[in-house]
Design brief:
Elements lengths: L3 H24 L22 H5 L28 E8 L5 E10 L5 E18 L5 E20 L3 E14 L2 E16 L2 E10 L2 E4 L2 E4 L3 E10 L4 E10 L5 E10 L3 E10 L9 E10 L2 E8 L8 E8 L46
């Protein structure tokens, strides 16, 4: 069991890191807000995964699963099982966002991979001309396809990199582009640290018009105590076209069957931002299935957001990841040297099998 002195030392480390991240975030609070509205494909900033969003969006130094890889691709390097995840989000403006991903390990190497697709539908709108006459309805939709790789570098470090092809359509206007993600994650004992860049470089082109992607740089610290099932995380994010933010989250797991989560996100420099507020979540699963739900309580200017995710672990279906039928107990040879009796049927008494008792 972890010593009390070590717990106190780690607690002070987390508090110090939280204060440092907060000071840095406040210092950069308005660094990108003057660029608000100048980027395209802003649906990429919402992130995927009900677990992460139920913890306030804090995961850069904590996450080790498929959906965490959409925030920090280096998180994929700690995946232990191949998985398929499907997530659904009901956003506060009536939009719907769907994300699906799959990933696993390349053979027995230290390389992990993932493929994902993200779709956001913003509904149908009534078009109007300069004289306010109706021009008919039009719809908007956005889509992105991504591929990521993560590599273990020694026992404590992973590196991740990926790319995304992005498409946006507004009525008869369409835009296309490509962008990149990168990250690094260090874990030792119960402490994890991560740095990530999302939507880095690349451009969105709408005919002759060119826009930048909503780039975000983030740093995070995580603490995972397996024996108690408790995990804590804190992140600081610095987007190029919005307010910087600080995110904190906590999770408690019971026997890998149930998880309870809570968190808080604060957009620094914004007095009433719809993304600021507490978050809550719950998860449960068994035999290769896991269901997550997350809820973000919107700020004074917005409404709450619901997140739902279903994750499959094919190698664990009904315990098939191990030896469910006891095949390892079946002898590989059948010879007279086996003194345990016949393979089929009840044991035969020694005096009836043609051998004398000793």
């Amino acid at each position: 069991m972890i010593s009390r002195r070590r717990v106190i030392r780690i607690a002070f480390l987390l508090i110090g890191a939280a204060l440092a991240m907060l000071v840095v975030a406040v210092g950069f609070a308005n660094a990108g807000i003057d660029q608000a509205g100048t980027t395209a494909a802003n649906f990429l900033t919402l992130g995927a995964g009900a677990r992460v969003l139920g913890m306030g969006g804090a995961t850069l130094g904590l996450g080790t699963d498929l959906t965490a890889g959409s925030w920090n691709p280096a998180a994929l390097g700690w995946m232990t099982d191949g998985s398929v995840a499907i997530t659904h989000a009901g956003l506060d403006n009536g939009s719907l966002q769907e994300w699906i991903g799959t990933g696993g390990r390349l053979g027995r190497s230290g390389t992990r991979w993932s493929l994902s697709g993200l779709y956001q539908g913003d509904g149908t709108f009534d078009g109007r001309d300069a004289s306010n006459n109706s021009t008919g309805n039009f719809s908007t939709a956005s889509f992105a396809v991504g591929a990521h790789l993560a590599q273990q570098v020694g026992p404590n470090l992973t590196l991740g990199f990926g790319t995304k092809a992005v498409s946006e359509k507004l009525a008869d206007v369409a835009g296309f582009g490509a962008t990149f993600d990168a990250g690094v994650m260090f874990r030792r004992g119960i402490v994890g640290f991560g740095v990530a860049a999302q939507n880095l470089l690349g451009q969105m082109r709408y005919g002759s018009a060119i826009y930048q992607f909503p780039t975000n740089y983030g740093v995070g610290l995580g603490l995972t105590h397996v024996a108690s099932g408790l995990s804590l995380a804190i992140d600081a994010n610095f987007p190029n076209a919005y307010y910087s933010d600080v995110r904190v989250g906590a999770e408690w797991r019971w026997k890998q069957l149930l998880a309870l989560r809570a968190g808080y996100r604060s957009e620094t420099g914004a007095s009433a931002d719809p993304l600021t507020g507490p978050t809550f979540g719950v998860g449960a699963g068994a035999n290769g299935f896991w269901l997550d739900y997350g809820y973000l309580v919107g700020g004074s200017a917005g409404e709450g957001q619901h997140r739902l995710a279903l994750t499959f672990f094919p190698g664990k279906f009904s315990g098939l990841g191990g030896d469910p039928f006891g095949q390892s107990d079946i002898p590989s040879t059948f010879d007279d040297g086996d003194k345990k009796g016949p393979l089929i049927g009840p044991p035969v008494p020694p005096d009836l099998d043609g051998k004398k008792k000793k």
